């Protein structure tokens, strides 16, 4: 899927956070959103993922204007196509690791629903093997991010919105996450990553520097 921001502006209160920002995120490509802390990387990522409305400009999906998608259409986009790997939220702490991946619950709470083989495969790929019955709230910050990645793999999402995926990871898990994101793009997925990490930036095909004019 081709996701574009065209000339978008976002204001919070009187402050201009993004001012006429344009970026084109292509399928099969990893696009890095880069810039200093506070420059608006997360804000841009959220706008592209329809999590945050824009004040001006457009968001396009495969060339179609989706800026004013209503709630139902936005939800369908999230459910069918998108996966979010964001810092500090998106994981349901009170639910099991398995539920957070499959998003399906069983009548018997301890049982696992959904495609078990795929669940196990996605956990194994993200270094969370045998953790399916644990409470997600007991995972560390880096483990939660990998859990969100396991969910994206399980769902076979078309577009990944990823915020600072390697910030809280050690070297080997950093390599793991970079490799998994590359594999996503290789299979034709659109990967959009906000990052400071130079290794992550090196792995991306396109680098978008947030404009400094505010
Ligand atoms: N909900 C909000 N209310 C007020 N200000 C906000 C809000 N969200 C973001 N901002 C401001 O917008 C600016 C851009 O924030 P954003 O999180 O997009 O930056 P960033 O480039 O992702 O930074 P970092 O590298 O530190 O994650 C910041 O100055 C921030 O204070
Ligand atoms: Mg940020």
Automatic annotation (TrEMBL):
InterPro entries named in the record: AAA+_ATPase, ABC_transporter-like_ATP-bd, ABC_transporter-like_CS, ABC_transpr_LolD-like, P-loop_NTPase
A GO CC term assigned to this protein in UniProt: plasma membrane
Keyword vocabulary terms for this entry: ATP-binding, Nucleotide-binding
Domain ABC transporter: 3-213
The keyword Nuclease is assigned to this record: no
Database matches in Pfam families: ABC_tran
GO MF annotation list: ATP binding; ATP hydrolysis activity; transmembrane transporter activity
Presence of keyword Nucleotide-binding: yes
Name of this protein: Putative ABC transport system ATP-binding protein
Taxonomy of the source species: Bacteria, Bacillati, Bacillota, Clostridia, Eubacteriales
């Amino acid at each position: 899927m081709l996701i574009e921001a065209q000339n978008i502006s976002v204001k919070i209160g009187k402050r201009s956070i993004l001012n006429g920002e344009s970026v084109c995120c292509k399928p099969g490509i990893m696009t890095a959103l880069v810039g200093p802390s506070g420059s608006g990387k997360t804000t841009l990522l959220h706008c592209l993922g329809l999590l945050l409305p824009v004040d001006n400009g457009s968001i396009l999906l495969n060339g179609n204007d989706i800026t004013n998608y209503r709630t139902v259409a936005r939800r369908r986009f999230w459910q069918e196509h998108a996966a979010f790997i964001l810092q500090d939220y998106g994981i349901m702490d009170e639910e099991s690791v398995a539920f957070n991946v499959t998003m399906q619950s069983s009548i018997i709470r301890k049982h696992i629903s959904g495609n078990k083989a795929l669940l196990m495969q996605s956990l194994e790929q993200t270094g969370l093997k045998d953790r399916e019955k644990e409470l997600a709230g007991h995972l560390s910050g880096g483990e939660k991010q990998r859990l969100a990645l396991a969910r994206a793999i399980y769902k076979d999402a078309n577009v990944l919105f990823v915020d600072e995926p390697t910030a809280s990871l050690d070297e080997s898990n950093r390599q793991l996450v970079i490799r998994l994101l590359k594999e996503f793009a290789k299979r034709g997925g659109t990967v959009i990553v906000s990052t400071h990490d130079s290794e992550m930036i090196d792995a991306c095909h396109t680098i978008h520097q947030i404009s400094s004019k505010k």
